[in-house]
Amino acid sequence: MLQLTAPPSPAPGGASGPVRRLVDLCPALPVTLLAAPPADTSRWCAGADLAPRAEALVAAEAARIEVAHGVAPRPHVAASRLLHHYLWALCLLTAGPWYLEGRLARIAPAAFWIEESTGALALLADVPGAGPATPAQLRTAVAAHAGPVLGAFQPYVRRGPHALWGMVTDDLVSALWYLGRALGEEDRAVAAAAELLPGGTPPFAGAAAFRTLPGTAGRAHRTRTRQGCCLYYAISPAEACVTCPRTADEERVRRLEA
After folding, report:
1. Which site in 150, 191, 197, 234 is 20 to 30 Å from 134, CA atoms measured?
2. What is the pLDDT of residues 237-253, one digit of tens each?
3. CA–CA separation, 212 vs 230, rounded Å?
């Protein structure tokens, strides 16, 4: 197993309330809250500095994938996996406070950090807010951070702008969906995602577009199909995501009810 290096010291409690609550609620959110920027900038890279470090970050992600899965991924696969990892956390940190309290967390690229050798993420705890937020303001905040990140990774993921913004759309929906299910309120999360991404809101590509699958014994399951593929199947072909365009509805039901 890959040995993870220790993260910087966590913040002693200075995070804004909604973000702190979010981190406490979401064990799948791989983020450490910090009181100050990481001292070792040879290991840690701020989101504002991704472009000159992207090649090294992608190479490190490829090495982690090979250790974990026993396969050497092609560079664009490693780049797509790393970009998804970054975007999903960013979307949850930005949209989570809106979902929990109707407030906006503005995650500045200079305040969000990724560790090269492990892929660990860290956030400066003093997250500025702007009070109550509308869906349009939340979309603007996500797009402002995500746009330069997509530009930094585009040469490595080998996808055009529409596909890249499709990835942001998917990760924003997925983040809200995950949070809602973690709180036992999937219906509310699905409604929030539909309100946030109804379609026709560029640069985001498409809508949340949830649908219901009939299951066995009268059961029903929420699902959606991603705008684009996160390429996990290229690492583990037998485990394509349940929302992957490659996964048929029958297989989705089988896996959801397993």
Report:
1. 150
2. 777 889 988 899 999 99
3. 22
Maximal C-alpha separation, the chain? 56
**Calpha distance 167→246 (Å, rounded):** 16
How far apart are the C-alpha atoms of 1 and 245, rounded to whole Å?
31
Half-sphere exposure of 255 (CA within 13 A, CB side): 15
**How far apart are alpha carbons 140 and 142 in whole angstroms?**
6
Task: Give the integer Cα–Cα distance in Å for 251 and 35.
Answer: 45
Q: What is the 3-state secondary structure (H, E, C) of the chain?
A: CCCCCCCCCECCCCCCHHHHHHHHHCCCCCEEEECCCCCCCCCEEEHHHHHHHHHHHHHHHHHHHHHHHCCCCCHHHHHHHHHHHHHHHHHHHHHHHHHHHCEEECCCHHHEEEECCCCCEEEECCCCEEEECCHHHHHHHHHHHHHHHHHHHHHHHCCCHHHHHHHHHHHHHHHHHHHHHHCCCHHHHHHHHHHHCCCCCCCCCCCCCCEEEECCCCCEEEECCCCCCCCHHHCCHHHCCCCCCCCCHHHHHHHHCC
Measure the CA–CA gap between 78 and 58, rounded to whole angstroms.
6
Reply yes or no on whether the pLDDT at 14 is more than 60.
no
